[in-house]
Request: fold
Amino acid sequence: MEAVVSFEEFSYSYPTREDVLVDIDFQVHRGEVLGVIGPNGAGKSTLCRCLNGLIPHFYGGRIRGKVIVAGLDTQEHSTAELSMKVGLLFQDPIEQLSGVALTVEEEVGFGLSMLGYPKEVIGERVAEAIERVGLKGLEGRSPYELSGGQQQRLALATVLAMRPEVIALDEPTALLDPIGKYEVFGVLRELASEGSTLMVVEHEIEELAYIADRILLLHGGRILSIDESKRVLSEVSRLKEIGVDPPSVTELTYLLEREVGVALGEYPTTLPEAVRLYGEVLRS
Amino acid sequence: MRPLIEAEEVWFSYSEEVTALRGVSLEVERGEMIAIIGQNGGGKTTLAKHLNGLLKPTRGVVRVRGLDTKETPLEELTSIVGYVFQNPAHQIFTSRVYDEVAYGPTNQGLSKEEVDARVEKALAMVGLEAYRDVHPYDLDYGRMKLLTIASILSMEPEVLLLDEPTSGQDHRGIRAVAELISRLGREGKTILFITHSMRFVAELAERTLVMAEGLIIGDGPTREILTDLELLRRAAIKPPQIAELCLRLRRRGIDVDALTIGEAVDAFSRRLGADAPRRAS
Amino acid sequence: MGVVRRVLLDKRVLTGDSIIHRLDPRPKFFFFLWISVLAYVFYDYVLTALFLLVILALAAAAGILRRILLVLAVIVLPGFAFAIPILSVLFPWNETLMFKLHILGFELPLYYEGFTWGLSWPLKIAVCVSSALLFYLTTEPGELIALLFKLRLPYKFIYMVTITLQLIPLLLDEIQTIYQAQLSRGLRTKANPVKRIWNFLALVIPLTLSSLMKVQTRAIALESRGFSAPVRKTCLYDIRLRAGDHLFFSAMIAVTLLLAYLYLLYGFSPIVHLKFYYVAG
Reply:
């Protein structure tokens, strides 16, 4: 499998904080969705900022090892160069707007205009990106008039317009209301099914379970496990120990096994799985 | 005795174009634990700001302990109803945890000894005694949130309003807030909180309000609200995963009913004919 | 804050549709520079008042007369109120006595030179301010950006200008939230001066910190989208000079010629013939 992102023996300290990432070594493969989970302060956001060279170019600090994205060493290429290869989506829907675009259309074209693309190309790519995130019909609106979910999809469109090889999303739904979360996860599911390469940091593990092929569990700057989603999410006691909520249905199954002695043989991680499993067990 | 808080047909407009409340009526009794849910822009925060007098109704009346908020000084109202804002960055301004918690009671005009006692008590309540001399910005986000709660608790309000205490928090942070809220609830404090986490609502609130487009579209026991599919659909809210699991199983003819994981363990083990769980809670 | 919101931040005005709105931003911007220079060159309050009338007529055509008058009332009327009486008495080049004022047993001589000076300067400032507002309030931000691009200014400067205008409303909302958060903690608006400084800090510190955090988020979001790429940025907006714009330019040239002729004939004060400039040397 081809690696789009590759962390090689990577460690990092901010100028003001030591050992935020330690001995990080993993790959994101083309076409896969890698979920990243862990408690606050585990280093998840830092991990995202390594992808497009914000670390070290913007933040400074000390680095050991390498991060290679789409064949480019992030230490040797500027964030502007890397912006065509990696898209970054942040938590706050308003603060990541360019702030100078008057309409949705212009906001989506902002990145391309910063890179000096001709207007015609920008127009085409913008229309395509707006379509993909389902904001068609709102092109002429002011970004500030949109709901949180729409703003976050707008931010996603601005990233898609750059046609990056991988998109890193840093808790994209943390500040959204239920509708907003639903909308954003809807778009993410679609991108995943189209074969986009995504790295998704999320606390909404019940939703993440649907889209992540693999999950990386980060704690104290170190990788605790990286494996198929189902495997990682089934380590209920370990997750709870470090302060991460497994999906409710997974936790339920774990508790039934530990406290009542009823073992199902496997841990469901999504609702349909749980309905199927419990449907069989409870009927008999 | 009349209810602690009464809102009668409250309308509120921020400007000519933006009407945030369209006739909201509400009664809160002493000692209640109430969740307010609904999409952003539905009026949750606007309603909450009416309950401690930060906003005054354009039409209608809000009474706190029988006092009309339009005619009562704000200082008096904020001492009865404490409001914890969502973003800690909007209120933290001192360089010491202690000073931050002391700000409220000092403003209330208490003596130094009283302020000191209040601060110690509030810090103990949220479990931050060990951090009294730390710089607030050196705390992690979860503790910063607890600090903002302590800085309101030190004013010893009868009612506590919390605006999205779960936002931006990880599992551990949410646990800590949940434990604090339920302890305060047991001690008799009246608590209202706004949240988007249905799991949090299911585990804590006895009563739930659903708001949409400036109206309360649902008000009742949490169990009824979180299983009223028609209501949740109107508010575009997904029930907690456990409630949804039970619902789908019932559709398959398996009669189980639970809102929280704890309830589900009990219900499922009963169905499976296994021994009752060993846990007490 | 109220006036700022009403005059500068109301979006509906910017996107209005009038002869003035339809003009290209370049002639409007040039008009602002041109008429401000003229108001400075000529020393003649009647002529300056004429300039102001022309601007107000254009403002009326654009439907923004009331807004501009509001601003003038706030900044120019106090100018008259202070400058005229003070300068009439104390202006260093006073020479021509108009009359003597008797107040409280004092005899105050009022001079013509000081009086006209006090009359002229607020009028000159009014011309500058109202023509600047005429430009700003009838130019869409997109046109403004295009204009700055055409002037070949560095993009970082263009971004700074635009972001400032866009962020003011967000900043006002932020201040509002912080103010409410601290009111909830008993911040007193009426307090002794020492407490007042403390209260001021309770607002300014959170505002500064939260703004800094937001600025950092924005900075990394911009960097991630190629903000610093060393290429010439693409301007997404178009502006084009049309017949109306050429006509406007021609009118300005014609008036310039006429005024140049008057200046050669009568000097800097062609209508009221002020002379004290010479006295001042």
User: Anything to note?
Assistant: Residues 1-139+243-281 of chain C form one domain.
